[in-house]
Amino acid sequence: PGETEETFSQTVSLINESGLPYYIPYLFTYSKRALVHEDREKFGLVGTGHTWKQNTMDAVEASRLMTKMIHIIPQSYSDGMSHIEEIYNLLLGKGYDHGEILKLFRRKRELQLAVEELGSERPYHPKVKEILVKMASLIK
Fold this sequence. Notes:
Helix content is 54%, strand content 6%. By secondary structure, the protein is mainly alpha-helical. It has two domains: 1-82, no CATH class; 83-140, no CATH class.
């Protein structure tokens, strides 16, 4: 609670300037059992779960901003709200090193953007196909 478009932009700037290899966005979940419930009046917080509203933003706006992140954070990788640490550790366990994992994550980001722009229908657009071939070359 208290997040605004300005604080969202500050978070994006922090990620971009820090050189973090990945980030994990999480949509706030409101529960009466959460500590913030005690301050609900201060924040104008109403709703439940992922359906909430507060003085400066609501869940719909927060979701919209989160979907923009892949476009405005070009050097870091995200796989939405999945557990990237688990994927990273799984790949380490399969014999990939840090650099190889980052290459795979970057290719996946490229693929996400290309599919969003060009579609995922077969036959694949040449750009999508090229990214898939590059990804395949990284897979052990």
